[in-house]
Design goal:
By secondary structure, the protein is α+β, with helices and mostly antiparallel strands. It has 5 helices and 8 strands.
């Protein structure tokens, strides 16, 4: 898992180095998400990198009934992750990423519940890793989800790598 997360650190470093215009002009989360996905493609050869992907093979992605996360996208609060690293046809789900700008003052619970559900090992389509990213103008705050919950040691490891890349807080 550390190998896969190290690739994400590299993509984030490239995002901040090459896309400073987006941060300086305070562009929206979707613009940042798209550009991060572009940088992720270079790090994950042989994998598909998609934004707001709503399929599992031929089926529409839906969580079990009663889940706290909606599958209705009319309000922009769907189950679809901001970015996924996966194989479309198999499906083989490696990484789900939720991105927020630091200036977003909406409660983060929806994104956190989504990552918990998407990495829940009891669901047959579970992603191996989920990452919650809060992108500031010059730094990144994060949590790493494995097995449906925040993985404290892996989150700490990832945070330390972000600091080493000049993107950490503190």
């Amino acid at each position: 898992m550390q190998t896969e997360l190290a690739k994400l650190v590299t993509a984030l470093s490239e995002l901040y180095a090459r896309e400073a215009f987006l941060f300086a002009r305070d562009l929206g989360e979707r613009a940042l998400t798209h550009r991060l996905a572009v940088h992720l493609e270079k790090q994950y050869p042989g994998w598909d990198v998609d934004c707001d992907y709503d399929r599992l093979g031929e089926r529409t992605l839906r969580l079990p009934h009663g889940s706290i996360v909606s599958t209705d996208d009319h309000l922009g609060k769907s189950v679809y992750p901001d970015i996924v690293v996966h194989r479309r046809e198999i499906p083989d789900n490696l990484l789900a990423i939720e991105v927020r700008k630091a200036a977003n003052h909406q409660p983060p619970e929806h994104d956190r519940h989504k990552l918990g559900a998407l990495t829940d090992p009891h669901l047959w389509f579970a992603y191996g890793i989920g990452v919650y990213l809060v992108l500031g103008r010059k730094s990144v705050v994060s949590d790493v989800y494995v097995g449906g919950v925040i993985d404290g040691p892996l989150s700490g490891w990832f945070s330390e790598r972000l600091k080493q890349a000049g993107l950490g807080v503190g």
